[in-house]
Inverse folding.
């Protein structure tokens, strides 16, 4: 068994414990007054096209249902306001958040009316990069726009059912050029280790990225739930993790000429928001159907049934289905995972957060990863080595696969 296999196995076990949610007995959530503002995550589950590799909560776009959904979402935002929450950042994910621009803009306007948010990050797809949409998103205050591309290779785009909806690689390039330089951060979302992806195809994708020169690139490993993986392998072939390390090393080496790692798989030209808001925000509230939040050591998941979500909100209730309260040690381990995913951990900061020395609680983790050559320790500062970057890709891959499995569970069996 290789070191990578051991890391995968241990991460899988830890994630299964972290996601062992129970049914929510009461649909309320609160924070201690005076605590610093946190992130608001908003989930828009509608997509014009359901990609076969995607395990996120998404449903086919239905205009009438989506309109009712946005109305409920606005009410949920006001519920959090009435609970006394403070937010200084907003991340809107999906699904496809820009599927109904008018509703999206009015939702963001409501957020800005009620909270002093300093940054807004938003996901979109290439076909929504119109001049009008770009101008509207800029005017509403979007600082970071993340465009889901996955690959510029036409054959891969066809095999994952994106070509006919979002266009060829050349068409996507022209769309991205429209948005380049408009926002503080333009991020391109890419995926590596598709079963039918080759090193030559990956090399060409990176060549295109270097020519487009966006100020951020997020290169995710393929992360699918167990159920989605079976469906994907039927269409594309065997999902081989042995190629993942080769592809990742090539990505890091190729992008390092113009980009620095902001996380283990996000590469930037300047400081700014990233897709993994869990790195920069210790806590985040999840709004919308299927969203997951983490507040005051307690994780919660909203219902995946959209009609049920709307019904609960209309009754003035939060649509929480599952909850998990974490023990202090689990909270510290969560911080260890997430902060080092962002490349560095300051134990002094962690000590101040919890009010006691956290080093002793992390001795097994620190010893294990130090033995693997994954960590560099300088007093209270711990950072990832070049070798450690890939171990954290493995850790976070297993974390998000676990989350995707959890999403499948919630979709099939309501807690």
């Amino acid at each position: 068994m290789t070191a990578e296999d051991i890391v995968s196995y241990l991460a899988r076990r830890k994630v299964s414990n972290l996601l062992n949610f129970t049914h929510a007995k009461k649909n309320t959530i609160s924070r201690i007054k005076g605590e610093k503002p946190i992130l608001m995550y908003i989930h828009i589950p509608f997509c014009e096209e359901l990609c076969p590799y995607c395990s996120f909560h998404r449903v086919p776009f239905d205009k009438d249902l989506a309109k009712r959904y946005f109305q409920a979402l606005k009410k949920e935002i006001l519920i959090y306001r009435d609970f006394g929450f403070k937010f200084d950042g907003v991340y809107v994910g999906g699904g496809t958040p820009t599927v109904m621009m008018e509703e999206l803009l009015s939702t963001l306007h409501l957020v800005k009316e009620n909270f002093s948010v300093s940054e807004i990050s938003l996901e979109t797809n290439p076909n929504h990069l119109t001049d009008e949409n770009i101008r509207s998103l800029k005017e509403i205050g979007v600082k970071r726009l993340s465009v889901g591309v996955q690959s510029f290779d036409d054959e891969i785009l066809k095999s994952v059912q994106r070509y006919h909806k979002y266009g060829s690689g050349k068409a996507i390039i022209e769309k991205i050029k429209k948005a380049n330089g408009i926002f503080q951060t333009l991020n391109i979302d890419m995926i590596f280790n598709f079963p039918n992806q080759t090193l030559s195809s990956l090399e060409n994708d990176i060549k295109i990225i270097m020519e487009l020169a966006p100020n951020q690139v997020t290169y995710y490993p393929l992360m699918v739930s167990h159920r989605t993986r079976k469906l994907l392998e039927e269409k594309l072939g065997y999902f081989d993790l042995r190629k993942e390390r080769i592809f990742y090393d090539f990505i890091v080496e190729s992008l390092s000429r113009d980009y620095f790692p902001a996380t283990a798989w996000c590469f930037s030209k300047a400081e700014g928001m990233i897709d993994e808001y869990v790195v920069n925000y210790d806590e985040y509230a999840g709004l919308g159907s299927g969203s997951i939040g983490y507040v005051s050591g307690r994780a919660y998941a909203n219902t995946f049934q959209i009609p049920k979500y709307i019904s609960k909100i209309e009754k003035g209730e939060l649509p929480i289905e599952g909850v998990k309260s974490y023990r202090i040690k689990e909270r510290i381990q969560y911080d260890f995972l997430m902060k080092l995913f962002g490349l560095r951990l300051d134990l002094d900061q962690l000590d101040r957060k919890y009010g006691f020395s956290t080093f002793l609680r992390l001795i097994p983790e620190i010893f294990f990863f130090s033995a693997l050559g994954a960590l560099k320790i300088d007093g209270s500062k711990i950072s990832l080595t070049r070798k450690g970057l890939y171990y954290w890709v493995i850790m976070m891959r297993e974390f998000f696969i676990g989350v995707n499995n959890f999403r499948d569970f919630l979709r099939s069996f309501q807690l």
